[in-house]
Amino acid sequence: MAIESRTQIKYIRISPEKLRRVMAPLRGRKVGEALALLRYHPQSAARVLAKALKSAAANAENVHGVSGEELVIRNLTADGGPSLKRRRPGARGRSKPILRRTAHITVVVGQEEVG
Q: b/e string for 14-35 if b means 16 or more Cβ within 10 A?
C-alpha cells in the first residue's frame, strides 16, 4: 500500500491560472527538487506553492514517518474559489465589473515507487 499525504490551502488571493503556470513543471518531481525550483521563481505564486509543499511533506513525516527525501509530488491542482466582485467607474457614469479571483490548492505527495 502506497503512503500518501494531502494538503489543501483555500481562498488564496491569486487566480488559478497564475498558479497553474507555476505548477506545470513541478508535477512528478521530488519534493526537495520542487522546493529548490520554487525558491528562485519570480512569481508570487511560487511562495504559496512552496508553503503548501512544505506542509504536505511535514504531514507525511508526522503521520506516516516518511522523510522528505523519499517523497514525490503525485498530484498538484489549483481550483477556482469564490470571486470577489468589485466595480470600477466607467465612461458616462457607468460602472465596469472587476473580478478578483481566488483559488484552492491541493497537494498530494507520496513515497517514490521503486521497481
A: bbbebbeebbeebeeebbeebb
